[in-house]
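Entry 12.
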Amino acid sequence: MTDKTTDLNQQLIEFIQSSPTPFHAVKTMSEKLKAAGFQQLVEKDGWSLEAGAKYFVTRNDSSIIAFRYGEKPLAENGIRMLGAHTDSPCLKVKPNPDLNRHGYWQLGVETYGGVLLNPWFDRELSIAGRVSVVDVDGKLHHRLIDFCAPIAMVPSLAIHLDKEANSKRNINAQTHLPVVLDLVDGNDAGEFRSLLAHRVAAEYAELGQLELLEYELSLYDVNPGRIYGLNQAFVAAARLDNLLSCFVGLQALIEADDGQSMLLVCNDHEEVGSASAAGAQGTMLKDFLTRLIGDDEAMIRTLQQSMMISVDNAHAIHPNFASKHDDNHGPQINQGPVIKINANQRYASNSETQAIFKAVCAKQSIPLQSFVVRSDMGCGSTIGPITATEIGVKTLDIGVPTLGMHSIRETAGTKDTDYLTASLKGFLELSETAV
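Predicted 3D structure (tokens):
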């Protein structure tokens, strides 16, 4: 592995470590964009967008659009678009979470998205997210919070008390997943909202006396990502699906050459269907394009000159479960990006968009792979088909091969981070004649 590849993957690990929730991911991306000269827009304000400038806008603090405005007319040249999502499957703290049982202070949790539950046991967990508070003057504030330290765990039941644990144990999300936060002494019951209010007051002392109103909080594994393997072939971290795509998309957008109009959208709520104001099925991207382009005819002309690449991790073939893959479509780690194809439009790729991307990769000698789910299995989906449906742009679905998807810790290939960055940068720089 080259020094450049090592550095890029270390940056990825740092990005993920600073982004335990979608709110934190958007904050991290916003800081990187500001450092790269992007100007922040606010949706409730009036806009005056100028060719040659760089902008970004957020919604719900958990979704973001970054845009580089090229000099060439949009209706003639279109926009090169990248899409990803900021959310990952996890455990979320319930509104009234306190459980004081048998001397333990526990918190009740909900499962968010398609969580692979077994790996959440016996992990050092912390809590992060967004809180809403009101100060003594009645002013409402929304702030991010992160306990950072390991403060919770979901302990396993010892095998001595469940002899069939390795063959028949099922996980009940209601009864088996409440996290242990502390011990309680006698009648002293723990109260999470009080704990959280004290934490917020300490972290935001400049706001003065505060009253906690509400929160959206997630649990996460505090253990940082690692590069591993005898030859450092792998990168393991939480939330690679899909913060790896957010990170690489952002790198490509910032590093791409000027000239072409290009855009990155990272939506929240993909893991639960995208049906929200901040999700891909919401109006955020359409609203942005409407304010950018204007009338209906210009919008249609621009979109017909444009293309979107939806970037979301793909399933690498698992050496212990190879039968779960179609024999001819088992992507391998460090063998390049994966084009995701589904006849029933669970992925938006078609022959036209595949050909365009293949031409981009061939020009840079970047290897490519294809994924098609077994014909006797169901298929997941991405923001690709939703975005294509909502705005009418031709779309391709791709991703890097990943093991352990939706686990608390996932694995991807260190070379694939490089391959994906180069391929997306090449796509963003495509001339008007190429799409």
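Annotation: The chain has two domains: 3-88+238-428, 90-221. The chain has a mean pLDDT of 95.
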